[in-house]
Amino acid sequence: MSTPADDLPSLYAFNTWANARVVEALRTIPESDYEKDQGGGWPSLRATFVHIAGATDAWAERFAGRDAMRLPTIQELPTLDDAVRTLLGAEEKHRKLLPTYTAERLAGPFKWKNLKGEAKTAPLWVVVRHVVNHQTYHRGQISSMLRRLGHAPKATDMVVWGIEVAARP
Nearest Cα to 113, choosing from 70, 68, 72, 71? Predict the structure, then answer.
């Protein structure tokens, strides 16, 4: 595997791989464990995964020039399959946007409204990378929750992905 000229396609490829590993782990557990309230900011596996899916879609919408003022609730995405569909759709939107991120565009400001309707501005390169960082953070929470429930999470470390990619013919 050679060093990519720009890390965004590889970063998003890693992210898609890591999300798929989380979905594999979540598919092995009882629905009652997926829904079980464990306390904390995102109190269940379902709430955390729905948040990942919804936030990923919201950022894709914002990068495409549309406002995203709310995220879906667990009532709107009650099953794992519902959340997976939303996440896969969001990942596809991001894949289509990646080629539009020229060096000039990435260096420039990106303006959006957050969920409270407040105007925000940051360099686009920061926000595009934030999408992956945000999901990595929440995947870690999911791993911890799975362990607390007595289940084994799948490794989602970038180095594990890199080893797999390097081993491909």
Answer: 68
Measured in degrees and rounded to the nearest 5, phi and psi for residue 111 equal -115, 135
Q: Kindly report, residue by residue over 45-71, the tens digit of the pLDDT.
A: 999 999 999 999 999 999 999 999 999
pLDDT digits (tens, 9 = 90+) for 88-120: 999 999 999 999 999 899 999 999 999 999 999
- Please report the sign of the dihedral spanned by the C-alpha atoms of residue 139, residue 142, residue 146, residue 147: positive
Burial 123-156 (b: 16+ CB within 10 A, else e): ebbebbbebbebbbebbebbbebbeeeebebbeb
**CA nearest neighbour of 94 among 14, 9, 3:** 9
15, 134 contact by CB (below 8 A): no
Q: Which amino acid is at 18?
A: A
Question: Which pLDDT score is estimated for 1?
Answer: 40
Domains of the chain in sequence order: 18-167 (1.20.120.450)
pLDDT at site 52:
98
CB atoms within 10 A of CB 34: 20
Give the Cα separation of 106 and 17 in Å (integer). 24
